[in-house]
Amino acid sequence: MNKVIISGVGLWVPPYTVSNEELVGSYNAWAEQYNQDNAAHIEAGNLAAKPYSSAEFIEKASGIKSRYVYSKEGILDINRMRPKLASRTEDELSHQAQMAVAAAKKALQAANKTPADIDMVIVACAYTERSYPAIAIEVQAELGIKGFGFDMLVACSAATFGLQRAYDSLRSGSAKCALIINPELTSPQVNFTDRDSHFIFGDVATAIVMENESSWDSAHGFEVMGTRCITSYSNNIRSNFGYTSRVTDEDPYANDKLFHQNGRKVFKDVCPMAAQHIEDHLNDLNVEVEELRRWWLHQANINMNLLISKRLLGRDATLDEAPIVLDTFANTASAGSIIAFAKHHEDLQKDDIGVICSFGAGYSIGSLVLKKC
Question: Strand 364-372 to strand 222-231: parallel, antiparallel, or no bridges (unpaired)?
Answer without folding.
Answer: antiparallel
